[in-house]
Design goal:
This protein is mainly alpha-helical. The chain has 15 helices and no strands.
């Protein structure tokens, strides 16, 4: 399930290409391209869940292999199964979207046995793993914590993982850190119950029809009103020329102005904050200050001229 933040990022990337092509693309075509990009991100999102399951299965395979040794040790015959019985892995397997793709050879990581082995070795040599497996308790909170550690300590900023993903799909280049963060957020939202099987929510690409409509309206309206948004920017800057603005800043400003003007239920401050966060990651060091200044001026002008079309939640300051 793709968040609104990622929808905005994918819209920015799609709209960037649109403006570079002089905006000569139909509304239907640009929406098709955005939807495709979002679907590829969702595909990667599931693929990363499958990676965690592949590590769990590797660990289970090692246990079974050790039991079959010619002279197995006491430890081989009585292994610590805390990790492979982690309830979060169980919840992943019970999710139909993850389970269906994990049964597909393209998603079960069987092409990368050495990588899975290296991840497992990093896990087993870490202090947090030793603490986890030696703990006398068996709480879901601890199950969540160990996966959080694996993601933050091993998978984030993993150059080998980056290379694998780049090899698998050119559409996965920029999404890894953000989607790993989404997985952590997702497992931390799991309702904890020691008595009943836990459920992990990972649905289709969009959470609901409202999110899909948000994505479509954002990209189409931005494309249709690009000239108007350029005028808004230039009127605010006065003596500047459009060419002096960093291209990515122009893209971000267009999308932010589209939200401010076309989404009555979206608070302006939410819109501005969202795009400032995106600018911090994708643009220059000073871009967020520049973008904030432009958006703040246009926002105040719209308020003074009573042209701010907001209602409901959109009226929240």
């Amino acid at each position: 399930m793709i968040s609104r933040r990622l929808v905005r990022i994918k819209a920015m990337q799609t709209y960037y290409a649109f403006l570079q092509d002089s905006g000569d693309v139909s509304a239907e075509r640009i929406w098709h391209e955005l939807r495709f990009n979002i679907e590829k991100s969702h595909e990667l999102y599931v693929y990363l869940h499958c990676l965690l399951l592949a590590v769990c299965d590797y660990a289970e395979g090692k246990i079974e292999l050790n039991k079959k040794k010619h002279l197995p040790s006491h430890e081989d015959l009585n292994p610590n199964t805390r990790f492979i019985n982690n309830k979060i892995f169980e919840a992943f397997r019970n999710n139909s979207t993850i389970n269906n793709l994990y049964s597909n050879v393209d998603f079960n990581w069987s092409d990368y046995p050495e990588f899975i082995k290296s991840i497992w070795l990093q896990i087993t040599t870490a202090d947090y793993y030793k603490t986890y497996t030696s703990s006398e308790g068996n709480s879901i909170k601890e199950d969540i914590k160990i996966i959080d550690k694996i993601i933050s300590k091993i998978l984030v900023e993993n150059s080998e993982l980056d290379e694998i993903l780049e090899e698998k799909s050119i559409f996965w280049n920029d999404d890894l850190e953000f989607l790993l963060s989404n997985i952590v957020q997702g497992i931390k939202k799991i309702k904890i119950s020691e008595d009943t099987p836990i459920r992990y929510s990972l649905k289709d690409v969009f959470r609901d029809a409202g999110d899909e409509e948000f994505a479509k309206k954002l990209i189409v309206k931005a494309a249709l009103h690009k000239d108007r948004y350029d005028r808004n920017i230039l009127e605010t800057l006065k003596k500047w020329e459009l060419e002096r603005i960093a291209f990515i800043d122009r893209v971000i400003l267009h999308l932010a102005l589209c939200e401010i003007n076309e989404f009555p239920d979206m608070p302006v401050k939410v819109t501005i904050n969202e795009y400032l966060e995106i600018a911090k990651y994708y643009s220059t060091e000073k871009s967020s200050l520049f973008i904030n200044g432009i958006l703040d001026k246009i926002y105040n002008q719209l308020k003074e001229q009573n042209l701010l079309n907001k209602k409901g939640l959109g009226l929240v300051e």
